[in-house]
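Researcher: I'd like a candidate sequence for this fold, 468 residues long. If you have to choose between options at a position, lean toward the conservative one.
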């Protein structure tokens, strides 16, 4: 069981932040302690040195007045009087607080102790000569090392500072633990929501959403998660609708074929050329439907082979219209072309011709006989715009928003003889997307439909234009 135990992300984040805070606290504690001790020793050292210098000057004046050291030998009152006088001088304002924090000795020319503790003066102590006005050295003032004084005389103060600093570290550690705990919980709250949402999403619940709690990267991640869930939910609905539409589209021609074959088998109908033609028509409908579904699936996956090169769209449109000329005359449908001399584009000529053929087929199927179709090509600095605008009948605003959906036909009867499979415009949408373009639909001024294809200029088409 212990081998399987793992720290959660909350515990890991808490440990990382808290250990960092603890390291900073300990480092700051030792840094402050070292800085304090070093500064405190220097503070005492500078003050003591200054006091010893002043004491040496005062003793030199006293020696000059008395002519010898008799006044000071074994006379503690004299040294106290001198020290008290030093506290009243203007220089005393630059010294440490009142009270000497160092031991000192006063010795004469023969190195005999005049004033000081009973033990001998330390060899490492600082010596200041007592010099008269004539320059004669009549003795020395010796002070104990400041470091030794700090360790001995100020031990209580130092221990108090240590206890206080460690108490501050302990309180700061508790505060850091509390703040880190709340901070880790606050930071991980949106992550936990995302984890829970991901589990629901992986279980197939595409309707799940998470609430973005902030506008930072986690909030952006939550918004991206919601967009992903929305896309998956939409794809699921489209997949179900796609399967339902395919089954519906296949059911009717198969039912007709089955009925006709059963009637021939039962002797109700004779296998006449007319019956064979009707059966072939249903088979052709099924074949076209299967081909359209195959083309749509390939374009959805991006599996259609696109062999792009710099091409001229003007002759490509003219060729497409020429291929439909016989059917246009039988309908009849008048076609008017408004084309420039040249329109270069970097694209796949076969797929673009398929795009133009599907749009022309759409106008041919839905425009009333005797109507017209205007194909217009314009260019500007950003796009090449190709418009297929036909005459009545038109579509409603509601139908206009569904034109590029799969299996959608504007005819209420859904007659396959004129309505097709309902996949042509969906395939057009995928071809335009593969060329980084846009496909829009609007109402025509003549009461029909206006479909516009926007293909962006590319560096390849620009270079091709320059070469020509």
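Model: Candidate sequence:
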């Amino acid at each position: 069981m212990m081998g399987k135990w793992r720290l959660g992300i909350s515990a890991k984040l808490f440990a990382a932040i808290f250990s960092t805070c603890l390291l900073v606290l300990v480092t700051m504690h030792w840094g402050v302690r070292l800085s304090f001790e070093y500064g405190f020793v220097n503070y005492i050292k500078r003050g003591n040195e200054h006091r010893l210098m002043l004491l040496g000057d005062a003793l030199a004046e006293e020696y000059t007045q008395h002519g010898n050291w008799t006044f000071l030998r074994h006379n503690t009152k004299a040294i106290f009087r001198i020290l008290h006088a030093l506290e009243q001088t203007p220089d005393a304002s630059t010294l440490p607080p009142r009270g000497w924090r160092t031991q000192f000795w006063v010795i004469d020319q023969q190195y005999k102790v005049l004033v000081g503790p009973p033990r001998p003066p330390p060899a490492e102590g600082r010596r200041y000569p007592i010099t008269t006005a004539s320059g004669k050295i009549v003795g020395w003032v010796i002070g104990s090392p400041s470091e030794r004084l700090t360790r001995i005389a100020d031990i209580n103060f130092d221990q108090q500072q240590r206890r206080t600093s460690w108490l501050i570290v302990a309180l700061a550690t508790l505060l850091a633990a509390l703040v880190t705990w709340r901070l880790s919980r606050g930071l991980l709250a949106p992550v936990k929501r995302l984890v829970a949402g991901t589990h629901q999403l992986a279980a197939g619940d595409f309707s799940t959403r998470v609430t973005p709690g902030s506008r930072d990267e986690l909030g952006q991640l939550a918004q991206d998660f919601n967009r992903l869930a929305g896309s998956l939910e939409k794809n699921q609905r489209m997949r179900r609708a796609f399967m339902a539409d395919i089954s519906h589209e296949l059911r009717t021609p198969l039912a007709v074929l089955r009925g006709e074959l059963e009637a021939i088998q039962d002797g109700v109908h004779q296998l006449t050329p007319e019956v064979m033609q009707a059966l072939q028509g249903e088979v052709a409908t099924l074949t076209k439907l299967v081909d359209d579904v195959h083309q749509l699936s390939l374009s959805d996956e991006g599996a259609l082979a696109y062999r792009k090169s710099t091409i001229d769209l003007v002759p490509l449109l003219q060729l497409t219209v020429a291929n439909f000329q016989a059917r246009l005359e039988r309908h009849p449908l008048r076609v008017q072309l408004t084309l420039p001399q040249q329109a270069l584009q970097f694209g796949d000529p076969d797929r673009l011709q398929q795009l133009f053929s599907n749009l022309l087929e759409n106008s041919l199927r839905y425009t009333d006989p005797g109507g017209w179709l205007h194909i217009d090509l314009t260019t500007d600095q950003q796009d090449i715009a190709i418009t297929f605008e036909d005459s009545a009948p038109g579509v409603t605003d509601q139908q206009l928003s569904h034109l590029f959906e799969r299996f959608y036909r504007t005819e209420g009867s859904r007659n396959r003889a004129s309505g097709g499979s309902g996949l042509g415009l969906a395939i057009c949408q995928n071809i335009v997307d593969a060329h980084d373009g846009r496909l829009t639909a609007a109402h025509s001024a003549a009461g029909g439909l206006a479909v516009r294809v926007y293909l962006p200029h590319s560096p390849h088409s620009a270079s091709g234009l320059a070469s020509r």
